[in-house]
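Ticket #4471: structure output looks truncated?

Reporter: J.K.
Steps to reproduce: submitted the chain below (365 residues) through the standard prediction queue, then opened the result file.
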Amino acid sequence: MQAFWNRIFLDNPVGDYLILAAVLLGVFLLRHLLSRLLISLFHSTVRKWIPGIGLHNFLQLMRRPLELFFLVVILTTAKDHFRFPKKFNITLFHAPLDQILSGGIWILFILSIFWILLRVVDFVSMVITEKAHLTHPSDSQIILFFRDFIKVIVGIIGIVVILRMVVGLDAVNKIIGALGIGAAALALAAKESIENLIASFIILFDKPFRVGDYVQVSTASGNVERIGLRSTRIRTDQKTYLTVPNKQMVDNILDNQTLRTQRYAEVRLEVAPEARADTLQDLVREITSRLEEEQDVEKGYTVNLIDISKNAYVLKLTYFTAIIDWNAYCALRQKIILGVIRILESRQVRLASPVQIASLKNKES
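Returned output as attached by the reporter:
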């Protein structure tokens, strides 16, 4: 038996192959358990300051990258303890096969490390977002923005590290130098993207609007659902999903209607021209009294006869209300309009009719 274990096969003892196969099989079968054990230990250590984040959330984020990490660690350990068989060590792409495989294992190792780092960034942002919901809910979008920004930086660093392994340090320096030479052309080509990125920082720090606000910019209006690195997503009144570049959100005049302190209302009455002056004066007085009785109407309302035309006398009433909710505002507006209609009915005042104009047009034709 000892002879069988020490027998050399492909430049390595058979026993080493069997041990490696057993370890790989064990890690492959137990990778879920190992990942869960490590994640549970970490979660139990930090759960005092993350009470809102359960173990399930952390498992969903870290399980797969940790499984890859365990497998790559075993492969790396095996590589250091095994000799690559000489008969298989052919040359591919001007490099021996053992060097190519070794480099591939190291690339997988680096990928697993940066994958874990990206998931750690997600986890930290999840924790901070959970805390922000308890104290400052409006700051959660800033957290998501910086989460995406940090992940981009980590991804770039990972690409540079992998390139250094694949092509060497000198080649990476040449690539960076070439990028430096072409930086002007690259900046010109990415001018709009850079402007949108700068605009996103302006939005997040100046805070002209936040997620959930109802805004109107240019021809777009709706509720802000997300502020990204390049654009802002708006849910319109028609329930469509509108993407607006951040530069437009900063450069155009933006009306944040959520920040209003009052709502403005206007009602225009075109009274038939047979109405007498005394009737119009009484009409103005009664409508004014009706607005004065309404508790939700702010002081400063106006009811005036503002114009005379050949077809109508024009009355205009304007008022402000502290009611911001749209449905409640519409209910108040309806209540006031119905009150005005009752006053017109009690006074037997008729509104001007466009039928006369239509009949004139028919005669002309």
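Triage note (M.O.): checked the attachment and the full token line is present. The mean pLDDT is 77.
Status: closed, working as intended.
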